[in-house]
Amino acid sequence: MGDILQPGAMAPDFTAPVTPDQKLSLSDLRGKRVILAFYPADWSPVCGDQMTLYNVVLPEFRKHGAELLGISVDGAWCHQAYAKANQLHFPLIADFHPKGQIAKSYGAYRDNEGVADRALFVLDETGHIVWSYCSPIAVNPGADGILDALEKMPRLEAANV
Amino acid sequence: MSELRFPINDRDHVIGPDDAPVTLVEYGDYQCPHCQAAWPQVELVLRHFGRDLRYAYRHFPISTIHPLAKPAAETAEFAGANGLFWEMHALIFANGHQLSGPTLVALANQLGLDVRQLQDALEQGTYAPKVEADFIGGVRSGVNGTPTFFINGQRHDGSYDAMTLSAAIEAASPGVQPEVVRIPVG
Q1: Which residues of A are identified as catalytic?
Q2: Were both Cys, which of A15, A136, B142, B153 would link to A25 (CB 3.0–4.6 Å)?
Q3: Domains of chain A (ranges plus CATH)?
């Protein structure tokens, strides 16, 4: 496990593919709360799969005004097939080229294995990290820490909801 | 370490005495093959510890990949309202490989339940709030897939086979000894 970025730090910006022909920049989401969920790989066994879990918890995240981005080193085509197979309703970022660059900038890259850690970051509207957590790679961290962090943030202005 | 935020209450389906030294809570999905495989293991664990163990089952339907998980959970709740929760629970898991709307109705019929009442309850979502409440409570407690077990409130991140579960239960409460030591055969 690396030393992941801690609360208070500015979340490093990135621009990377979300589909084979579309890119997304983190800075495009400025003004919104963002959950960054780094994970090692698409296609882990389904019932215990972190992204599948977050997909069903998505309405809870959105109640707190937060957008979710999943990030792994898989390519955009792989992400597309994986998202389709599991009917994921949130973007998956391809940290594919240069491989793991985004994960590295968050201190969440595992050099030996060449994949991202299971690292979670909650960002506020200004792009600062308010909570981060790195789970052992074999343990899906669940969604409780994310929801606790979102609940501790100031109440959303009605206009932002 | 994730912890169970919501202790057992009177809306739970519970096996075992209130004052048992160990409490095992499972969050499961009736359409999940791992949960189907885990139920016979849980049964072994329940027999193994007898009255030293209290067990509760809560719903955690991953409905995006298991469209029948919610209807099945609501069917179990309907059976529960008629005093037959565990009977339906076991039947649904035993028929997990052929789960469908008609299967749920057939199982209700098999238990002598009023099938029209079940269909009305499913259509009107009578038991949906209970299933949803279980799910949200599980999310807030760190349920990270199905099945997820909590032993005396701590999430069990190990395997769900009877040996591993039993070892974890004994570790959680060192005084607890199995009532009957026997090796299940066959």
Answers
A1: 47
A2: A15
A3: 15-154 (3.40.30.10)
